[in-house]
Design brief:
single chain, alpha/beta, Rossmann fold, 10% strand, globular, transport
Length: 287
């Protein structure tokens, strides 16, 4: 990784200032595709938006290429998750020759290092990001301020449909306990009023270490004895332990909510979130 960044830095030396004089140009680079969506929605046709990490790729393990570095070097606005999720982007930002504006979504949502990094699962994140993007774009292109603000409002109105659904689910969750394979869906679960009871196990899985035998036995017993309303499985992570727990849940008639860490190819952020919330609604409707 270090060698890769050194190579990228040397590669950029000759081109980092090429576009720095175009002060009203808006070129947005986001680390992930789900942040590219509000960036495009608010910007409209007044600039360009591109993202670096392709759908289905784990940003934790991502290693940027020279082409990614060149893309980042031309950006006037960068949207990154922060909270340690895409820290490789900081290296690319440092090689940018423009008057770069970096929007760190974790900081925008008042989170600090060590907090759950999956902040895009908070139902309010994208609406707050839309407002931030409108304000950022307006500074770069003041003449289009009203357009950016109007676009942000339209995007926020779309997000309200999911936010309303989450509030409805919260009225029926009865503050029940749930278990998760990883802390991916936790912000949404909290908003819906559920309580995650296997944080130690989930954090171990996320860090790619073996969970303690004690945590695993407890989780298996909680599933067998229906001490959880449902089990949330991150199907993007291949793990025999998690697959076994999902099968155990099905065997014991404990519902399984299937989620992914990033937007699947062929869909969008709103529909992605909605499809996962609808799984919870289906479980509630059966109670």
């Amino acid at each position: 990784m270090l060698f890769s960044f050194i190579t990228i830095a040397l590669f950029l030396t000759g081109c980092k200032n090429q576009d720095s004089q175009k002060s009203n140009k808006i070129d947005v680079v986001t680390t992930t595709n789900f942040y590219a969506e509000p960036a495009k929605a608010v910007l409209g046709n007044h600039g360009k938006v591109k993202y670096i990490v392709k759908p289905g790729t784990n940003p934790h393990d991502f290693n940027p290429k020279n082409s990614d570095a060149v893309l980042a070097s031309k950006a006037t606005v960068v949207v990154e998750n922060g909270l340690g999720y895409d820290e490789w982007m900081d290296k690319l930002d440092s090689n940018n020759g423009n008057n770069l504006t970096v929007i760190n979504v974790g900081k925008l949502m008042n989170k600090k290092n060590g907090d759950n990094e999956h902040i895009w699962y908070d139902p309010n994140t994208m609406s707050k990001l839309a407002d931030k993007l409108a304000a950022t774009y307006s500074k770069l292109q003041p003449k289009n301020k009203k357009v950016f603000e109007k676009n942000a409002e339209a995007y926020k109105n779309k997000m309200k449909k999911n936010q309303t659904l989450v509030k409805e689910l919260a009225t029926k969750s009865k503050h029940q306990n749930v278990a998760v394979s990883e802390p991916v869906f936790n912000y949404s679960l909290k908003a819906m009023g559920y309580k995650v009871i296997d944080s130690s196990f989930a954090n171990a899985i996320e860090k790619d270490v073996d969970p303690s035998p004690k945590d695993l036995v407890k989780l298996r017993n909680d599933i067998k004895h229906h001490k959880v309303a449902f089990f949330v499985e991150n199907i993007q992570e291949e793990n025999k332990t998690i697959s076994g727990l999902a099968e155990l849940a099905k065997k014991n008639n404990v519902p399984v909510v299937k989620v992914t860490e990033t937007v699947p190819a062929g869909t969008n952020y709103f529909d992605w979130m909605n499809s996962q919330y609808q799984q919870v609604k289906k479980i509630q409707d059966k109670d």
